[in-house]
Amino acid sequence: MENQGGFMRSVFRLIMRLLHLPFLLILVVPIITRCEKQHAINQTEVAEHVRYLSSDELMGRKSLTPGIEKAENYIAGEFKKAKLGYFSGLDTYKQSFDLIEYSISETSISVNGKELPSEDYFAFLHTDSIDWKNGDIQTATIAEDSNFRSEFRTITRSENDLIVFVDYSHEETFHKYQPYFSKPAQNIEGSTDPSIVFILTSVTPKTFKVSIKAVKEKHTLTNVVGVIEGKRKDEFVLFSAHHDHLGVRSAVESDSIANGANDNASGVAAIIELAKYFSTGPKPERSLMFVTFTAEEMGGYGSRYFSEQLDPDQITAMFNIEMIGKPAVSGPNSAWITGYERSTFGEILSNSMPDSVYEFYPDPYPNQNLFYRSDNATLARLGVPAHSISTTPIDVDNDYHRVSDEFETLDIPHLTHTVQAIAKAARIIVSGEETPTRVDTSQVD
Description:
single chain, about 450 residues, alpha/beta, Aminopeptidase, eleven-stranded mixed β-sheet, 17 strands, elongated
């Protein structure tokens, strides 16, 4: 009887399991289906993005060329495939704005009544013309015992028009700067950038006259932006990369197209894949923005305009992805983060994947000032925990800003693993579990 009772209990339990099986399937199947549908970041698609964006067809993606328009169309098309939403106020993935360019046409500059030769001055001109004399305008000095580079950086962030007198002891450095900064000056339409004139002089300037005229032109630039609305509509995690490069350069062995495969088609491919990955997953806790910036190589105009269209206090973190197509010196399963010490962003990523062989660590090239050399700097200056993630050994890379930066030079498996690692590491911030500390704006140059 005892054996019979045990048998009956077993039969009863089996029947109950069978009765509950459909209910269990109802619970389990949607979860399985959703996971199966989430986009898998894979080498084939990563390679496809990079190969097209760095192809000769796009002629190096220089800003204000047909090639960069093709890149923008491609990225917008991929954002559409990912079914991203539009950025606030837009009905397209393209965020266009106008850039004003001033090309100097006439100059006349004299100090103490003596007309100066053109090699003794250069100007950032952000107006049609200036006509200054002593008493009309503020002046500054880079003295003999000053650090020219440091003073120059400080002066160029001025909000006021200036004449800067540079002591002749800085002649060599002045003439190194002059060719680059004598190019046409540019600013975003509606901005109020100051005009600054640098004058090299060996005498104490008692009187001066500065007359400069310029030709004004307007150009249109375009960022590409897509959004995933999260449960917290006013908290955003930003994923970004710049899609422009250098265009056509001086030929090397009959090749004149700077294709920019690593810089930064690799980063753009990451943004596209991250957009697809997160858009096919469950609704995120925080809202997500995916943006590829224009004109990074021209001076960061794309990120600058973008930053003026949003409330920086709503940006929880910025993952700016820059040149991830080659393994770092420390190994293939690693990436470094610029400005690691400026917020807890890097620390959070470093600790986010204890079960992974992939490692995030501080920028190993602090002397190269890389924190300020990409689009993250614009947002960091507003307090956003904005950092660039890179893997390229920049100090020894033979292809950086050269026509040899081709698709064939990249390590696509490494690039893919890096995108996968960023996707995994970012989840702890996307989910709201962790929030990086803000950047101290008083400590940002």
